[in-house]
Structures are given as structure tokens and as C-alpha cells.
Write a structure and sequence with these properties.
Blueprint (H helix, E strand, L loop, with lengths): L1 H47 L4 H11 L13 E2 L2 E5 L3 E5 L7 E11 L2 H7 L3 H12 L9 H19 L7 E9 L1
Helix pairs in contact: 4-5
Length: 180
């Protein structure tokens, strides 16, 4: 008779462990469900805080407007900014190890208004000179990856703003970037 009593006692302990494990399982599942719901709500608010419908209509109307092309660069108005195209540049990169390396670069400057374009026009030679001096010191390895291109963009933007001070360019846009 000792054997059935031992079996009953073992079943009782197993049943007690199962009863303790079930509430822990519900707590873990409930916490996971709350985390998923909060993440979903955060994603919904993040995605819905984008462009408003009125802004989208305004941007679509502005896309249809164009300005005249200048002597040294063309302009296009898009969402209250103007694009000033610089002439293409071919630069011999500083590459002592791998032999000669060249870069062809075509950029456009995004400016706030037409008056800014008129201020840039006489200073265009200073802008191109600032670009050439900087670009000739670059190595092919400096332009590898998106981080290299981002650093190039930021440095060229800084140099153009120094060359045309007190005027200021809002953004520099790459139209063509070829490294060979």
C-alpha cells in the first residue's frame, strides 16, 4: 500500500507545479500581447504623421511650374525652391597606389528664390574653384560606400556656402557621380 500512496503524492506535487506554471504562462502571453499592441499603435501613429493631404495637393501643383533656363545653369521651381545646375566637372583624384583615378561630377544647388540664383551667378567661379581644390585631394577610397558620398555632399555644401557668403544654398544635389 505504500506504493499507491507514493504515486498519489507524486501526482499531487505535479498538479501543484502545473497550477503554478499556468498563471506564469498567462502573464508572459499577456505581456507579449501588450508589447505587440503598443508597437502596432506606435507604428500607426508614426506612419500617419506623414504628409497631410492638403500638402500633397500643393506639392503636386508646384511640380507643374517651371522657371527659365539661365546662361550657365538651368533652373526648375519645385515646392518653392529653385534648382541651379552647375556645369559637369572631371577631376583627377589623388591616387598614388592604384594609378590614375578620375571622377566625373555633376551637381545642382537648391536655393530658396530667384534672387539667390542671381547672387550665385557672379560667384560661380569661386564655387567651382572651391570644389576643384577639395576634390583633387580626395582618394578613391574616400568615396566608397554611402558614408563616403554623404561626407562628400556635406563638405561640398559647406564649401559652396563659404564661397557665396552671405547667401546660402539649402541643399546640394548629385545629378551624376562617376568614379573610375
Amino acid at each position: 500500500m505504500a506504493a499507491p500512496a507514493a504515486a498519489t503524492e507524486a501526482d499531487g506535487e505535479h498538479g501543484a507545479e502545473a497550477k503554478k506554471g499556468i498563471p506564469k504562462l498567462f502573464i508572459i502571453i499577456g505581456a507579449a500581447a501588450i508589447v505587440v499592441l503598443l508597437a502596432g499603435a506606435g507604428l500607426f501613429f508614426f506612419m500617419s504623421s506623414g504628409a497631410k493631404p492638403a500638402d500633397a495637393e500643393h506639392a503636386a501643383a508646384a511640380d507643374g511650374e517651371h522657371a527659365a533656363t539661365g546662361e550657365h545653369g538651368g533652373t526648375v521651381e519645385a515646392a518653392h525652391t529653385f534648382i541651379f545646375n552647375l556645369p559637369p566637372m572631371v577631376i583627377n583624384l589623388n591616387n598614388e597606389v592604384d594609378g590614375p583615378a578620375f571622377m566625373k561630377l555633376t551637381v545642382a544647388l537648391e536655393v530658396a528664390n530667384e534672387e539667390m540664383m542671381l547672387e550665385i551667378q557672379p560667384r560661380l567661379v569661386k564655387v567651382i574653384d572651391a570644389f576643384q581644390v577639395y576634390l583633387r585631394e580626395l582618394r578613391k577610397s574616400d568615396l566608397e560606400g554611402s558614408a563616403g558620398i554623404y561626407r562628400l555632399k556635406e563638405e561640398l555644401l559647406r564649401r559652396v556656402n563659404v564661397a557665396i557668403y552671405p547667401s546660402q544654398v539649402e541643399s546640394l544635389l548629385f545629378k551624376e557621380l562617376l568614379v573610375q
